[in-house]
Amino acid sequence: MRRLKVLKSLITDSLDTITHGSKRYHLWMAFLTLVMLAGMYCYSIQLDEGLSVTGMTDRVSWGLYISNFTFLVGVAAAAVMLVMPTYVLKDIDFKQAVLIGEGLAVAALIMCLAFVVADMGGPSVLWHMIPGIGVFNFPNSMLTWDVLVLNGYLFLNLSIPFYILFRHYQGKEANPKVYIPGAILSVFWAVGIHLVTAFLYQGLQARPFWNNALLGPRFLASAFAAGPALIILVLALIRSFSEFKIEDKTIKKIAMVVTVAAQINLIMLVSELFKEFYAPTHHSESAYYLFFGLHGKGALLPWIWTAITLNVTATIILTFNKLRNNLKILYVACFMLFIAIWIEKGFGLIIPGFIPGPYGKIAEYTPTGIEIMVTLGIWAMGAFVFTILAKTAIGIETKKLRFKK
């Protein structure tokens, strides 16, 4: 009964915390709400008229939704780069940021699931994936593995921080014997969610652009670059607009993780380019379309070359210790890297896999306004969820929220 009383008090105090704040906070939440409502309106049009309102066709059947899904799986997996040193290796410098990283993982996973629902056309078809009712097809289908690992990782990233914050709310220390096993499991699970997503593409034999042994490792490298880069940017905002103190050395340690991952990601990119262009075959046509255009079609050229320019520039900046330790320059480099990997793992990976088609036809893909607005609405939802989680966690960690006996 006492735990239920504490839980009720925590919920009440959390609601009070997230509904009160500065004028700037309310403007931010109002802006996110407005974007979500616009996204919901566009999604209602998609529900009414079907996926024909998007830029997807029978030639290019995955577009902006799956591109964002693929990228956000990596952002969610990146929380492990804070979980492992904090909970497993006992690095106290990461302790300040780990709950923020896990909150970001929760928001990213919720967005992942929302993008999948949007891409399927609507929630009414989800019953197909319910075991015993629909055709779940486990363990043969990689898609079912993806469903399991994503929802399992979401549960881990909800339960571990909740237990720690629930104890801190009562003014008590969390028992390591309770959360450490889950933290260790989440380390392996984080690797699993991104590898399974990579295997989902690798297993499609008819799409030679994805039949690459480096796809899984590169997914991980890019995830451990873009995810912590986003965490650094979020921590910078939290330091500026809240009382939650985050030391410079914490951000600089995370920056080292970003630097190493970005360098590995760049090396793998060079390896892929060598494989595609040194001894090209007819299976290299997708890569040619992406990087140089094919038969006069080159809609992705501005995107991919922008991504490569940003990627190389950011990695060079991060490589030099003097530049990386300048926080203003670090924030710019992290933003550049985040955008570059978003493009690479989105338009640079998904769309070329469908081009050219089975008979050599090139049907280019351009997202419609409906798709873009639904996408922005889902991103706004993720930011809204993260803001709520972060504000509550910060209140508990700064001891402003405490259970009143």
UniProtKB/TrEMBL annotation:
What kind of membrane protein is this, topologically?
A: Multi-pass membrane protein
Which one Pfam family would you cite for this protein?
NrfD
Residues annotated as transmembrane: 27-46, 66-85, 97-118, 147-166, 178-201, 221-242, 254-274, 300-320, 329-352, 372-396
Q: Which gene encodes it?
A: nrfD
Record keyword Cell membrane present? yes
The UniProt entry lists the main location of this chain as membrane
Protein name listed in UniProt = NrfD/PsrC family molybdoenzyme membrane anchor subunit
Q: What Gene3D superfamilies is this protein classified in?
A: Formate dehydrogenase/DMSO reductase domain (1.20.1630.10)
**Keywords attached to this entry:** Cell membrane, Membrane, Transmembrane, Transmembrane helix
- Family named by the database record: Belongs to the NrfD family.
Location of this chain's protein in the cell: Cell membrane
